[in-house]
Amino acid sequence: MTTMTGYDEFADTYDGADTGAGNDTGEDAFDTPTSEPSDAAYTSDAGDTADESNIDESGADEGSGQPAAGKRRRRTGPDKHLIRRSAAKSIELSRADETDVGLLATLLGTGTDPVDLAVAVMTSSRADTTVLSDVRDLAISDPAERAVTVLTMNKSRMKSIWQVLAELGVLPGTMPTADAKAALALSAADITDAVLGHVEEVASLAKKG
Predict the structure, then answer these.
(1) How far is CA 173 from CA 36, 160, 164, 186, in A?
(2) Is the four-CA dihedral 129, 135, 141, 147 of positive or negative sign?
């Protein structure tokens, strides 16, 4: 009986130790969840990728009405107003006097096709038609002062005026090489009201709107 009692005590002690070991090592080693990426993590990455591929390029925060810092602006579409004006100008040129259209084409360095000329008008600068103002000023100036006015001009300016008057049939096509002769011819040019009428019409056709 003594021996059996000792064995039972030893068995109880061993079972307790085994149970404790199981709690300390078994559960920690096998039952502790490992740290693995969750579905939410993958979903977050996918969302970030989608956001990057669909960047809001409007340049403004939603609801704020203010441009967002660091965001690219989306390119605007075609300027419908400019397209309408170009189309209207093309129609206007197609109905204009041939003499006026020819002079305008000469000044802008393009052909007389209404579409091509309309594009040239819409992309031109004021400097391209400044000579029309020079012709107008020359026509209304006092005859005694006209020669002096022309002589004070540089050759390039005189050539531009000559070109306009030659296109309208007032002067021959070729300007004299000598500045004095060219100035005298310009000052004596007969710039009639009819000629001025063409000048005014060409100036109107040269307007972009």
Answers:
(1) 90, 12, 10, 13
(2) positive
Nearest to 204, CA basis, from 91, 105, 131, 100: 100
Backbone φ and ψ of 67, nearest 5°: -60, 140
Predicted confidence (pLDDT) at residue 29 exceeds the cutoff of 90 = no
pLDDT tens sequence across 86-118: 999 999 999 999 999 999 999 999 999 999 999
| DSSP letter assigned to residue 67 | B
53 residue type, one letter: S
Burial class (CB in 10 A: 0-12, 13-18, 19+), 139: middle
DSSP class per residue in 139-171: HHS-HHHHHHHHHTS-HHHHHHHHHHHHHTTSS
Mean pLDDT of all residues belonging to the chain: 77
